[in-house]
Amino acid sequence: MADVLPDSRRSIPRTDAVLAEPAVAGAVERLGRDLVKGVVAAAQAAARRGEIAPGDVVAATLRGLPRAATRLRPVLNATGVVLHTNLGRAPLSPAARAALDLAAGTCDVELDLGTGGRGRRGAAATDALLGAVPGAAAGHVVNNGAAALALTAATLAAGREIVVSRGELVEIGDGFRIPDLLVAAGARLREVGTTNRTHLVDYADAIGEDTAFLLKVHPSNFVVSGFTSAVGVAELAGLGPPVVVDIGSGLLTAHPLLPDEPDAAGTLAAGAALVTASGDKLLGGPQAGLLLGSAGAGAELVARVRRHPLARAMRVDKLTLAALEATLRGPTPPVRAALDADVAVLRRRAEQLADRLRADGVPAEGVSSAAAVGGGGAPDVVLDSAAVAVPEALAAPLRTGEPAVLGRVERGRCLLDLRALAPDDDDALRTAVLAAHRGV
Ligand SMILES: *Cc1c(COP(=O)(O)O)cnc(C)c1O
């Protein structure tokens, strides 16, 4: 190698020549000149080191180009965690992706094309939401679940009291805590009960002139078991002040696999005035915060929330509105498909993948696996699943490959769990494993 290097160096194509190649020029149009030049420079450097032939610089450039002008990289979620917060929670349905693309241009997000006058922003998404939640009379969409709760507190409880059980003072993740968020919104907390037990009388005794609302927060990321008791929404609703419930996951109606996960329709039916939830957890949509109000009192509260000055600071963009509406109106989103997937089908996929990988010389085996809902939801629910087990040494090259694959290392093996992976991605997974295997 060493004695061919000088000649090779001389024949490394110059940057301008590479950029002029039609395929590379097309990439410059799509991705921008600076980005493509960076990839060309990396390919030239590889040729200078003798890692590729000088004649391969154009091909290496094309291989090295990202799909889009972003440093974000696609990742195949083989962790078995259906809602992986570090992987962006819910993957969007094809319907939602198409809606995103449409909304990315100019669109009538806030215009009534019939009259030519201003239209109600978000009307289509809100209508879809109300259509999907029996008992919801009014709705509003904000940036995320935390924003929905913060805006509710700022609107209804600034300088007043929120009555909440000590068992529901939840840290949601990354050090952020619901009680801190409520206080930051200007509310005072009136904590009642204890960590494990709170009774109706605790709430009743705490209600006074300053009470803005009674709050229930679903402890979505932990379970307290043993000597426990909590008060249900129906009982609280009888006490007088409005009941606000942060259900967390965004389940709109009850799901048989998740009996302990509260749903929006059931919570409103039990007497909640307002329900808040996330859009990118079990609903399977884009990051968003949903506010739903019951007929009567709840609808009035939603109207107030909408007009609060901070509502403007938590406003969602047209992309979110489009993707949310399409998630609600469109076919089953991937998260729900993953949750409802038959484990027998997952096993068959795992066996097939393992067979094909073994035929290509990769030590692989179809195994049973335990998947989880994730996204800080349903912490005690184990979803039966199936995985392809490959050598642990493949975990790192899989993670840094293209596309990246994130699996789970367990007892000396790398498990590629199929629960959260769309069946359409099985081929991409197989190709990625082969590439990783060849590299180690
Ligand atoms: C996830 C969650 C939140 C935060 O929602 P984001 O959409 O992540 O802001 C708040 N409350 C509960 C109960 C949750 O589960």
Put the structure in a nutshell.
With 440 residues, the protein is α/β, with parallel strands linked by helices. The chain has 19 helices and 16 strands. It folds into 3 domains: 7-64, no CATH class; 75-87 and 336-439, Aspartate Aminotransferase, domain 1; 94-331, Aspartate Aminotransferase, domain 2, CATH 3.40.640.10.
What's the SSE blueprint?
Layout lengths: L4 H6 L4 H6 L1 H10 L1 H16 L8 H8 L10 E3 L3 E3 L10 H11 L18 H10 L3 E7 L2 H13 L3 E5 L5 E3 L2 E2 H7 L3 E5 L7 H7 L4 E7 L15 H5 L5 E6 L15 H6 L4 E5 L10 E6 L2 H11 L1 H5 L4 H12 L4 H7 L2 H17 L5 E10 L8 E9 L3 H6 L3 E3 L1 E3 L2 E5 L8 H14 L1
Parallel strand pairs: 1-14, 2-12, 4-7, 4-8, 8-9, 9-10
Antiparallel strand pairs: 3-11, 5-6, 10-11, 12-13, 13-16, 15-16
Helix pairs in contact: 3-4, 4-5, 6-15, 7-15, 8-9, 17-19
This protein binds pyridoxal-5'-phosphate (PLP).
Pyridoxal-5'-phosphate binds next to helix 8 and strand 9.
